[in-house]
Amino acid sequence: MKLKLVDAHIHLDQYKDDDINRLINHYSALHALITVSTDLNSCNRNLELSKNYPQVHAAFGFHPEQHLPSEEDLQTLIAWMAEHKNQMAAIGEVGLPYYLKQDKKEAAFPYNQYVELLDCFIQLSKEWEKPIVLHAVYEDAEAACDLLEKYSIKKAHFHWFKGDMKTILRLERNGYYISVTPDITYEKEIQELVQHFPLEQIMVETDGPWPFEGPFKGQMTHPKMMKESLKKIASLKKLPLSVVTEKILQNSMDFYFH
Ligand SMILES: [Zn+2]
Asked: What would the pLDDT profile of 178-196 be if each residue is shown by its tens digit?
């Protein structure tokens, strides 16, 4: 059977045109990908890419690891998203600024405003009945869960998730999905997470062009790296690779396309 992969989270807009062409047209195993947006420019580019390539499906949003948008920019973005609702596979990448917050220890860091911004995107996900793609790790995942539960959101995808056992169980109970990047091949923390989390709620992603270490050091991040992730998941779950590959494909299709 021909290999079929779905990259559940990639920033395709951040690749060069030549690389995009090679990555999609010269890699037939890539069945579909979800390209997530970081701001309005990124949304526009991802929309164009989704028109040019049938495998490309765009998510629209505002990445949390950056300065907050002005009120005017936020309203412009939301109006644009409303206008392109029908071309939108999901809302994302949205979430909370875990790494930015670590860098900026000062008390003045406007964390609550990031929470309010996420609240706003979660409301849109509810209103427009779109899945939501979250960047929310460790304690931020708890805060994101509070908001998702407040609006009874069913379809939430925690990309590159990291968190403690309590949060893992909460995500599992709520039926939320996680996705793992190629770092599962060398990060013990992610391997342990996958051992505990149900296969039914796991997807694979690259978060490309984010660069990876270990066996991928120095390489341009490419969806073919997900083959190594699948092998690792199969060994952790003690299941045949074909079963894991099929199940994870099904998970991504169910989450994004049904
Ligand atoms: Zn990302």
From this structure: 999 999 999 999 999 999 9
Report yes or no: 181 and 160 within 8 Å, Cβ to Cβ. yes
Which percentage of the chain shows pLDDT scores above 70?
A: 98
CA angle, 85 as apex, 83 and 90 as ends, to 5°?
140
Edge-to-edge strand list for the sheet holding 156-159: 5-10, 30-35, 56-60, 88-95, 132-135, 156-159, 177-180, 202-204
Q: Which residues of 127-136 are buried (b: 16+ CB within 10 A; e: fewer)?
A: eeebbbbbbb
Residue 228: pLDDT over 70: yes
Distance of CA 92 from the midpoint of ligand 1 (Å): 9
Ligand 1 midpoint to CA 205 (Å): 9
Evaluate the omega torsion of the peptide bond into residue 209 and state whether it is cis, within 30 degrees of 0: yes
CA of 35 to the centre of ligand 1 (A): 9
Cα separation, 238 vs 219, in Å, equals 29
- Rounded to the nearest whole angstrom, what is the distance from the C-alpha of residue 210 to the centroid of ligand 1? 8
The CA 33 to ligand 1 mean position distance, Å, reads 13
Closest residue by Cα to residue 246 from 233, 54, 177, 187: 233
189 within 8 A of 162, measured Cβ to Cβ: yes
- String of b and e for 7-17 (b: at least 16 CB within 10 Å)? bbbbbbbbbee
Please, is 122 exposed, middle or buried when counting C-beta atoms within 10 Å of its C-beta (0-12, 13-18, 19+)?
buried
The DSSP output letter for 93 is E
